[in-house]
Design goal:
about 325 residues, alpha/beta, D-Maltodextrin-Binding Protein, domain 2, 2 domains, 10 strands, about 20% strand, globular, Bug_dom1, signal
Length: about 325
């Protein structure tokens, strides 16, 4: 009997994934936006610390797959082999709004969330010599020049785009949307004078604000982010716009639960690491950890919210 049990244990052990040895080869981390943007910076800042807590042999390779508001990268992640060797950064609301606004080759069910890392409020920013220093200036210009105030975003259905649409509805102004592959491209466009306004997350704006390259009218948070204490919220200035982007890690659906748990634990340890926290502060990353289960519940709730919004007011290119 003991010999039988021993033999069975050997068979079962050989059939189970060698979790203790995971990862045995490099892990690809897909970033669905261009290099140099907020998501890319977060990914490249976090990756070495996740490697550290996965084990000394762990290696993570960041791959940029920009385009279509994130759809190209999200699709590649969704269709990857669910073996734990392809993970990716996923961003709200793009991850959720793309399948609502058009046929996509993925849905929320295509992913297994690992953990949320960042929660980043939106912001409107202009060049300091634009003549637009306040919301009153912006609204006056937009009303005098309907459709002439151009703004850059990371694409249709992004938080950058939806916040601008919400602002248009609140104020009755007409703006001109110009989508780009990623926030690095939006930044280049506004600094080069190709668009008048950047609708970007505050973490992606604040360094240029501190250096005097951009002027932020406000941040779309309930309370001021401590990384930008001098930038008033929209609400403080009389505009009820609360919008931002969560950035977290996910894997293709079907990855083994124990691998997900190991990745989640490594992300949590990385975020708690004082060295990472200092680097995150230097990179202006508003950290907000959420476990795999909590992140999934949050994403499911947001999906229902955006579906209802789409039914009431579809966000479409003018």
């Amino acid at each position: 009997m003991n010999k039988y049990l021993a033999a069975t244990a050997v068979v079962l052990a050989s059939a189970l994934p060698a979790l203790a040895e995971y990862p045995e080869r490099p892990i690809n981390m897909i970033v669905a936006y261009s290099a140099g943007g907020g998501t890319d910076i977060a990914a490249r800042t976090l990756a070495p610390f996740v490697e550290k807590y996965l084990g000394e042999d762990a290696s993570i390779v960041v791959l940029n797959r920009a385009g279509a508001g994130g759809e190209i990268g999200f699709t590649e992640l969704a269709q990857a082999e669910p073996d734990g060797y392809t993970i990716g950064f996923v961003n709200t609301p793009n991850l959720l709004t793309i399948p609502i606004q058009r046929d996509a080759r993925y849905s929320l069910e295509s992913f297994r969330p690992i953990a949320n890392v960042v929660e980043d409020p939106g912001a409107f920013s202009f060049l300091p010599d634009s003549g637009i220093e306040t919301f009153d200036d912006m609204i006056a210009y937009a009303k005098e020049n309907p459709g002439k105030l151009t703004y850059g975003t990371t694409g249709l259905g992004s938080d950058d785009h939806l916040s601008a649409l919400q602002f248009e509805r609140l104020t009755g102004v007409e703006l001109k949307h110009v989508p780009f592959p990623g926030n690095a491209d939006v930044r280049t466009a506004v600094l080069g004078g190709h668009v008048m306004m950047a609708s970007m997350n505050i973490s992606e704006t604040i360094a240029d604000v501190h250096e005097g390259k951009l002027h932020a009218l406000g941040q779309m948070a309930e309370e001021r982010w401590d990384g930008a204490p001098d930038v008033a919220t929209f609400g403080e200035q009389g505009y009820d716009v609360i919008m931002g982007s969560q950035r977290g890690l996910a894997a293709p659906a079907g990855v083994d639960d124990e691998i997900i748990a190991k990745l989640e634990a490594a992300v949590k340890s990385a975020i708690d690491d004082p060295e990472f926290q200092e680097k995150a502060k230097q990179q202006h990353l508003p950290l907000a950890f959420m476990s795999s289960d909590a992140f999934l519940t949050n994403l499911q709730a947001q999906t229902e919210t955006y579906k209802a919004l789409w039914e009431k007011t579809p966000w479409v290119q003018e």
